[in-house]
Amino acid sequence: xxxxxxxxxxxxxxxxxxxxxxxxxxxxxxxxxxxxxxxxxxxxxxxxxxxxxxxxxxxxxxxx
Length: 64
Known about the structure:
Blueprint: E1 2-10, E2 17-20, H1 31-48, E3 52-61
Antiparallel strand pairs: 1-2, 1-3
């Protein structure tokens, strides 16, 4: 399974960043599905977390 990883930074302190794995999503079946939907999921996450900005996102193997 593949999941989405977001690198997010505080708007008030752009050098303070972390990696988030959005909990609201189901794992993707493959990298292509993640690649097609990742930008939309990242935008949803950013909308729900206004104190952060999504610096980048990527798809990778699901971490348990």
